[in-house]
Amino acid sequence: MDTIYLDNNATTRPAPEVVEAMLPVLKDSFGNPSSTHAVGQRAAFLVAQARREVASCFGADPSEIVFTSGGTESDNIAILGALRSNPDKRHIVTTKVEHEAVYRFAEHLEREGYEATYLDVDQDGRLDLNDFRAALRDDTCIASIMAANNETGVLSPLEQIGDICRERNVLFHTDAVQAIGKIPLDLRRLPIDLLSLSAHKFHGPKGIGALYIRKPLRIAGLIIGGQQEQDIRGGTENVPGIVGLGVAARLVGEESEKMHARMRDMRDRLEREICGAFSFAEVIGGSVPRLPNTAMVAFRGFTAEEILIGLSEKKIFASGGSACHSGALEPSRVLLAMGIEREQAIGAVRISLSRYSTDAEIDRLLAVLPEVFKKIGSHSRATSAAP
Ligand code: PLP
To answer: What is the mean pLDDT of the chain?
Structure first.
């Protein structure tokens, strides 16, 4: 039986074109892009080509792309780089549903003496734009609001948020790690100053990403060494990773609306059939704009952990909205911030599709689920979970 991978918001399978492009770079084009000889210049050429591919994927200029080690580093550089470039402004505005790379980093910055406001979201995971406007202060340097939530897929109104930031002279950073490759993003149109992306979320390799910095904005660098990447991120470039990122970005650029619609149709059918079959199932964020690949379904009366174990016994891999630490059932911070009851949040399972997902895989998941619930039966740990 083949495995069925439905955890694409955690990471994705590298596209065959990506692997094919990276192998010869690992073997032969091993030069240091800063070297002036031919071997180095070949590597520099490949880096420049990838930069163009990444930029054109969302309408940016190549000079606006800084390669980083991934989403976490891009988020950290965007926020702290902006703060360090604006020493008079020490306040950050963000939300309670950001990824740890923003949320925990903001908490860390508070301990360093900066100030942060974490905005609430509603039951569907949406930010109230009036609250957002009210949270901006004269000393607010940057607002960091994710483009799409990694757990629920719920989208943020980037255009409106960016417009408000412009009115108030606040920089707007968006963590678009989950959005790239799933929804179109056009930076010629969107008022975004800084944007983070990570290759492994759209069929590229791990450990490589980029930060978009709108020209002519300059932010302080965080990794100081050689003056690579406009002196924002020193260190010899990860050339094979950058080449892989470039190809993954090109594939995203080639993806059509049709592909996104196919993913959405599969996801919607999955949710419809699950909710039709199990009265205790509920889709989270189902009535608001969200990514076409993500289904977050809460199964009341069960824990995500036991459902995921049941699925993985059938070689189907998804993930939970709840993490299980040392036997204690911990519902997801994001779901709790949405006001979802603990009992429901504990049973939240995230099923995330990719461009390689098939109808046959969805059929198999739907066929297996009744067996999984039957096996767990009345022994669910949800009933004995600590409040
Ligand atoms: N931001 C979001 C929304 C994510 O989903 C992730 C990864 O899970 C990250 C940031 C971190 O990206 P990376 O794994 O490339 O550091």
So the answer is: 95
CATH superfamily assigned to domain 4-12+256-385: Aspartate Aminotransferase, domain 1 (3.90.1150.10)
Evaluate: CB of 205 within 6 angstroms of ligand 1: no
- Residue pointed to by tokens 């995230």: 350
Q: What is the pLDDT of residues 140-184, one digit of tens each?
A: 999 999 999 999 999 999 999 999 999 999 999 999 999 999 999
C-alpha 72 – ligand 1 centre gap (Å): 6
Give yes or no for a contact between 192 and 162, defined as CB atoms under 8 angstroms apart.
yes
Start-end ranges of CATH 3.40.640.10 in the chain? 16-254
Atom of ligand 1 nearest to the CA of 10: 8
Residue 147 CB less than 6 A away from ligand 1:
no
pLDDT of residue 285: 96
CA distance 274 to 280: 10
Looking from the CA of residue 101, the nearest atom of ligand 1 is: 10
Residue 324: per-residue pLDDT = 57
Query: Which active-site residues does the annotation give?
Result: 324
Atom 13 of ligand 1: nearest residue by CA position: 71
For residue 357, the CA-to-ligand 1 centroid distance in Å is 21
For ligand 1, atom 12, the nearest C-alpha belongs to 71
Q: Ligand 1 in contact with 197 (CB < 6 A)?
A: no
pLDDT for residue 220: 97
Q: Are 79 and 173 in contact (CB under 8 A)?
A: yes
Task: Say how many Å lie between the CA of residue 176 and the centre of ligand 1.
Answer: 9
**89-144 pLDDT, tens per residue?**
999 999 999 999 999 999 999 999 999 999 999 999 999 999 999 999 999 999 99
Residues 302 and 150: their CA atoms lie apart, in Å, by 22
User: The domain 16-254 is classified under which CATH number: 1.10.10.60, 3.40.50.2300, 3.20.20.140, 3.40.640.10?
Assistant: 3.40.640.10
Q: Which atom of ligand 1 is nearest to the CA of 149?
A: 3
Given a contact cutoff of 8 angstroms between Cβ atoms, the answer to whether 14 and 208 are in contact is no
Ligand 1 centroid–CA 348 distance in Å is 20
Q: What count of other Cβ atoms lies within 10 Å of the Cβ of residue 156?
A: 25
According to DSSP, the residues that pair with 172 across neighbouring strands are 143
**Mean pLDDT to the nearest integer, 54-70:** 97
